Amino acid sequence: CLFTFLISCQVSQVFEGETREKPKSFVYSKFYLSCGPVGFHPVTMVLTQNYSLPTYEELEQEEIPLSTAALKAGALHFGKSCEQVNNEFVLCRQELDDPRKCLKEGKDVTNCALSFFKKVKQSCFDEFQVYANCIDQSSGSFDITKCRNTQHVFDKCMSDKLGIQRPPYDYFSKPFVYDSVRPKPLPEEPLVFSGVPKKVDESEPKTPARYGGRVMDFTI
């Protein structure tokens, strides 16, 4: 298991009986306490002053007020309806590897989901409600296999009124080529270290060993 703590730089740290103040050049420290058979082992990961966190205004976003059963009932239709924004968000997270740089794409996914479920409420509310209640009450694991009849009614309503066909179950596991309008990120520059010895030129002739070769026999 892993526990994460984020503390300010004014807080003193006590590890293994030693108390020390954090350096003033650091704003936050993130501590990972990994629990094992011998207890907790603190590992410090330091965030410098140049590390910027998003503001509350940048993180402000209307949430989707739906239960797990309701989200699962509309998951496949939602995934097909908002496929482009979902792909853009996943591609951004994988390419940039920084959630701070993908806030806009994440908000686009949430806004698309809000718009989708509002359309479902306007056009197929009764069918959706019956299907979601069946998923919620038929089992303790939200098993949709027990709700095929209500699923068929909901699928027909989505197809007739919104023109959204239910994709097959293996649709989202198939490989697709997604062409994004966002420019491809530049590759990171390799780290350059000082004091690295020069690489040996393999083309130069090699002189024989002064004392010959040393052959070690490990045969037992």
Key features of this structure:
alpha+beta; two-stranded antiparallel sheet; disordered N terminus; 5 strands
Structure description:
Belongs to the complex I NDUFA8 subunit family. It comes from Cacopsylla melanoneura. It is found in: Mitochondrion. Its main location: mitochondrion. Mean pLDDT is 80; it is low at 1-38. The protein has helices at residues 56-59, 68-73, 75-81, 83-96, 103-138, 148-162, and strands spanning 2-8, 13-15, 18-20, 26-36, 39-48. The chain is an alpha+beta fold. The strands form two sheets. Strands 1-4-5 form a three-stranded antiparallel beta sheet, with no helix packed on it. Strands 2-3 form a two-stranded antiparallel ribbon. Helix 4 (83-96) crosses helix 5.
- Which ranges are low-confidence, i.e. pLDDT below 50, for 5 or more consecutive residues? 1-38
Mean pLDDT: 80
Binned strand content: 15-25%
Helix segment tally = 6
Task: Give the structure's gist in a few sentences.
It is built from 6 helices and 5 strands.
